[in-house]
Amino acid sequence: MNFRNVISILGVLMALNGVFMFLGIPFSMYYDESVNPLLISGSVSVILGVFLWQFFKLKTARQELSKKDGYLVVTFGWITMSLFGMLPFLISGSITTVTDAFFETISGFTTTGASILNDIEAMPKGLLFWRSLTQWIGGMGIIVLTVALVSIIGVGGMQLFVAEAPGISPDKLKPRIRDTAKRLWLIYLGLTLSETVFLMFGGMTFYDAINHSLTTMATGGFSTKNESMAHFESPYIQYVVIVFMFLAGVNFTLTYFGLKFKFKKVWENEEFKAYLSTIVLFTLLTTAGIAFFSEAPYEKAFRDAAFQVVSVITTTGFITADYTAWAHILTVLFFFFMFIGGSSGSTAGGVKIVRHVILFKNSFLEMKRLLHPTSIIPVRLNKKAITEKTTFNVLAFIMIYISIFVFGSIAVSLTGVDFVSTIGAVATSLGNIGPGFGSVGPLENFSHLPDLTKWILAGLMLLGRLELFTVLILFTPYFWKKV
Amino acid sequence: MNFRNVISILGVLMALNGVFMFLGIPFSMYYDESVNPLLISGSVSVILGVFLWQFFKLKTARQELSKKDGYLVVTFGWITMSLFGMLPFLISGSITTVTDAFFETISGFTTTGASILNDIEAMPKGLLFWRSLTQWIGGMGIIVLTVALVSIIGVGGMQLFVAEAPGISPDKLKPRIRDTAKRLWLIYLGLTLSETVFLMFGGMTFYDAINHSLTTMATGGFSTKNESMAHFESPYIQYVVIVFMFLAGVNFTLTYFGLKFKFKKVWENEEFKAYLSTIVLFTLLTTAGIAFFSEAPYEKAFRDAAFQVVSVITTTGFITADYTAWAHILTVLFFFFMFIGGSSGSTAGGVKIVRHVILFKNSFLEMKRLLHPTSIIPVRLNKKAITEKTTFNVLAFIMIYISIFVFGSIAVSLTGVDFVSTIGAVATSLGNIGPGFGSVGPLENFSHLPDLTKWILAGLMLLGRLELFTVLILFTPYFWKKV
Q1: 3-class secondary structure for chain B?
Q2: What is the pLDDT along chain A (483 residues), one digit of tens a residue?
Q3: ∠A357-A360-A362 over CA atoms, to 5°?
Q4: Which helix (H) or strand (E) holds A385?
Q5: Phi, psi of B381, deg, nearest 5
Q6: A interface mutation test: which of B159, B331, B370 has the most A CBs within 10 A?
Q7: CA–CA dist A413, A401 (Å, integer)
Q8: Residues 6+ apart with CB under 8 A from A297
Q9: Which one of A155, A183, A185, A231 is most buried, counting C-beta atoms within 10 A?
């Protein structure tokens, strides 16, 4: 490991983060608010970041990141961004405790969207924009990570993503990193701006439109309104958000193919097919549930169902209706939806569809293996056999995910939170979704939780966002052993 | 597949089942009840069973069971036993519907212990004895299955059990089946009788003592009292039951070693160490919880904690206190305890400790594999590397277990049951435990559930008891394909 190199890169991230803070200043000025919080925080971040970058920069040219350095940069990158990203909230006094400010900020950078704000609309507009931007930066970070660091780190879901990318094998990836990252980043930016336009077309102000677009495409779910998307009653606006949440949960490489009219490639992708079918199936099921248990008109039932299903499965967390107030069966369904997650190579968090596909295929094949114990029966994805190593990694990922859910729930309930709120808060934090159940349900927020609980949930958000292994590996003896 | 052979063996099981029914008749006579229900049901079972056995018996001598025949015998064996085992309840009129009678009986044969009886003490004593006996037969069935059919079926947990057995490799097992099965059956019988003596020593009547011993050693949990074991307030009796529940959850081969004073073999067994540590740790944690949240004296807190922890982890399901009325944290803990299960090679159900041991080791090693992608890093159990095939099977088992929990919960909540009761009922049925949460909690029973729900839960009991694969494999195309 090369700590100088790691710190230097963290400095670069810190400085970039500071530059992003300045983007909120025009809004502060337009709405006649103090520019100080963002200006001071941004300046501190840029100055300290540049200093660290330069001071620790290695003299040797072209120093490459080792695998272990990569893990350190990713985990501490997200932590550093959150530590500096919370400064505007603290300096402005709009969030008064470090715990709350850190929770809100890491909930942003991890694209979770769980909030401790009791009155979002009372916040300065410039700060709310920064809050939305943390999610967008987090989403972009995941895309860059997926593309640029996959060859260094090579974690399960990302390996699979690479297998998807056109003609890119992990070996050949490095020379094309810049190209691929740029291409996907352009799609990300393009979709964000398109959504802004579509939302303004439906009557949203530019400010609300850009904020909601930033957090939609990041599958983040921070809103500028206390009632989340329920504030905007226009069916048009709600359908626009449904479509863009759906797009944000698609593998961005597939969106690229789609934009090049290579629909066959999109359609032949098994993860996409499973993603689409899951959403269609569960939307219909939920629509039927709402129509059966309430007197809502069919269009409203369908819209509410589609919105909440897409929102939870893509791990966005916007809300237009309280799914916990629906019938029992729907509550149970939505709890399990939290463990689905979007597509690999998207900004969505959670377990991710491709892992479920492999899981189900493997479970089914295990029965075949029992009947034919001497045959080697691999899982096939997109018509290619995937290695036992990858299948192993996927199963281990899901098992660790569930174990963390279990131990996280025990830890949270030890802080005095009730059963339903506990499992809701843990599932939603680990899956980077946002709203949970009970006292942290869609109509509530996380402010009333004890400080310790908030730190535990913040840790879970980070674990979930960075695909578990990236963080957990730092706690193993293997990582720190010198080779 | 050879259906004649399968039906013939089912006939033998049916006839044996009938003989067991006759064992309840002395109690009916002693307590001046009608002997008809047991006499008629037993006779029908024996006559029909002997007929099927003889009629379908193959003429060729020494016809061996194929693997596929084995799967069919096991699954349909349990179903046949339950279908005929419910006759006494229906004939006597003490259970009025087929749904309830089947639920109660399969809950017995699967050693689950969930009951639909609102007033257990009003039941005829002879029938209650038969009810306890169904659990004991089910427990014995699992032991015989573990030993005798492992070479035919070779399912995960059982493979591991065989690896444990002294000098028995699956290849060498067959000649020794009779010996091993007899030895373990003697331990099972011996422990049951010992417990009866110990319980009578504490003041229980012979009738109550034998009933509770039968259901303790089967890790079943049916009681002759409405309040389950809470009826017996004697600390001595409760401690006796704790000890025997613990023993029932130990691999019977290890108990055999223990009886031969080969304690080193017991102590070196990783599953036993994990089983013991889990129980000690969770008992202490629960004791602390009870002591902290209530004003119970320490001994009472410890006893209540130990009883409920051992009861749930061994999947017995006896109750001396309502764990769902304890603090939030304890409710959360007990929900997760339902997914632990006892040791392989015991009568306990659930996921089983050895699978958790492999799961945790594998999850930890996956991190090492990520850092050293070219090395082959196997999981080691009891100082021996286990094959990738076995690890794969264990991971697949756990994943399928969780998937069935999820889909089972969705199915049950579709029948209109509330969230907490749903996940409690499904977890407890699949894990063969007994009591759940909410409306099926320790102080409640399953009688109020809709019929459809009861059938779903009955199916889950069977799946859980037969280690999932044994039942699920019948639903795959691979099974029915001619080779």
Answers
A1: CCHHHHHHHHHHHHHHHHHHHHCCHHHHHHCCCCCHHHHHHHHHHHHHHHHHHHHHCCCCCCCCCCHHHHHHHHHHHHHHHHHHHCHHHHHHCCCCCHHHHHHHHHHHHCCCCCCCCCCHHHCCHHHHHHHHHHHHHHHHHHHHHHHHCHHHHCCHHHHHHHHHCCCCCHHHHHHHHHHHHHHHHHHHHHHHHHHHHHHHHCCCCHHHHHHHHHHHHCCCCCCCCCCHHHHCCCHHHHHHHHHHHHHHCCCHHHHHHHHCCCHHHHHCCHHHHHHHHHHHHHHHHHHHHHHHHCCCCHHHHHHHHHHHHHHHHCCCCCCCCCHHHCCHHHHHHHHHHCCCCCCCCCCCCCCCHHHHHHHHHHHHHHHHHHHCCCCCCCCEECCEECCHHHHHHHHHHHHHHHHHHHHHHHHHHHCCCCHHHHHHHHHHHHCCCCCCCHHHCCCCCCCCCCHHHHHHHHHHHHHHHCCCHHHHHHHCHHHHCCC
A2: 788 888 988 999 999 999 999 999 999 999 999 999 999 999 999 999 999 998 988 766 555 667 788 888 889 999 999 999 999 999 999 999 999 999 999 999 999 999 999 999 999 999 999 999 999 999 988 887 766 555 444 443 444 444 333 333 444 445 566 677 788 889 999 999 999 999 999 999 999 999 999 999 999 999 999 999 999 999 999 999 999 999 999 988 889 889 989 898 889 899 999 999 999 999 999 999 898 888 889 999 999 999 999 999 999 999 999 888 888 788 888 999 999 999 988 999 999 999 999 999 998 898 888 888 788 899 998 888 888 888 888 889 999 999 999 999 999 998 989 888 999 999 999 999 999 998 999 989 999 999 999 999 999 999 999 989 889 999 998 889 876
A3: 105
A4: strand A384-385
A5: -130, 130
A6: B370
A7: 18
A8: none
A9: A155
Compute how many other C-beta atoms are within 10 angstroms of the C-beta atom of residue B258: 17
Distance from CA of B89 to the nearest CA of A (A): 33
Q: Whole-angstrom Cα distance, residue B14 to residue B96? A: 23
Cβ contact, residue pair A369, B362, below 8 Å: no
Quick one: which of A481, A483, A464, A468 has its CA closest to A138?
A464
**A154 vs B359, B370, B392: nearest CB:** B370
Q: Please name the member of B400, B406, B414 whose beta carbon is closest to the beta carbon of A363.
A: B400
Rounded CA-CA distance A166/A173 in Å is: 11
Q: What angle do CA B183, B186, B187 make, to 5 degrees?
A: 90
User: 3-class DSSP state for residue A380?
Assistant: strand
Nearest chain B residue to A154 by CA distance is B370
A-B Cβ pairs (cutoff 8 Å, strict)? 152
Q: What is the ipTM of this complex?
A: 0.82
Q: Which residue of A has its CA nearest to B422?
A: A332
Please give the residue of chain A at the shortest CA–CA distance from B413.
Answer: A329
Tell me the chain A residues in contact with residue B480 when contact means C-beta distances shorter than 8 Å.
none
User: CA separation (Å) from A309 to A23, A186, A312?
Assistant: 32, 27, 5
Measured from the Cβ of residue A98, the count of other Cβ atoms closer than 10 Å reads 13
Report which residue type is found at B345.
G
Tokens of B27: 């109690």
Q: Is the pTM of this model over 0.90?
A: no
In chain A, the N- to C-terminal Cα span, in Å, equals 10
Residue of chain B minimizing CA distance to A329: B413
Q: Å from B368 to nearest chain A CA?
A: 6
Residue from the list A359, A370, A414 with its beta carbon closest to the beta carbon of B399:
A359
Sign of CA dihedral B160, B162, B168, B173: negative
| Cα atoms in the Cβ-side hemisphere of radius 13 Å centred on A353 | 27
In sequence order, what are the residues at sequence separation of 6 or more whose Cβ sits closer than 8 angstroms to the Cβ of residue A391?
Answer: A358, A362, A378, A379, B392
